[in-house]
Amino acid sequence: MVKVSICVGSACHMKGAYATTQLFQDEIAKAGLQGKVELSASFCMSNCKDGPCVKINDVIHHHVDKDRVASLIAEEIAPLANA
User: Fold this and answer.
1) How does pLDDT run across 24-34, given as a tens digit for each residue?
2) Which of 12, 22, 20 lies closest to 44, judged by CA?
3) pLDDT of the residue at 6
4) Rounded to 5 degrees, what are φ and ψ at 42?
5) Which residue, among 41, 46, 44, has the nearest Cα to 6 in the 3D structure?
6) What does the alpha-carbon distance between residue 82 and residue 20 come to, in Å, rounded to a whole number?
7) Which of 7, 17, 34, 71 could anchor a disulfide with 53, C-beta 3.0 to 4.6 Å?
């Protein structure tokens, strides 16, 4: 199971974390990864200036906006989920 946590702290929320969360849900479903990915919200990851932040297992990714979600799923999450 791949653990994906999206920061929903104040700074990340203001930078679009809610839209990022919705897009992750949609893209995970499109990729057929339901049941292989645990998607959750997280409070501050202490990288406020670099948000929205997303942690995939133990790796934090910065500036994750709608343009990066699909590539993170294809390049990071799907390979881990299908290993």
Assistant:
1) 999 999 999 99
2) 12
3) 96
4) -140, 150
5) 41
6) 23
7) 7
Task: Select from 21, 9, 79, 4 the least CA-distant residue to 50.
Answer: 9
- One-letter amino acid at 14 equals M
Q: What is the pLDDT of residues 62-73, one digit of tens each?
A: 999 888 999 999
* 41: three-class secondary structure by DSSP: strand
Task: Give, in degrees to the nearest 5, the angle at Cα 9 between 56 and 35.
Answer: 35
Block residue for tokens 């948000």: 51
End-to-end CA distance of the chain: 10
Q: CA-to-CA distance for 41 and 38, rounded, in angstroms?
A: 10
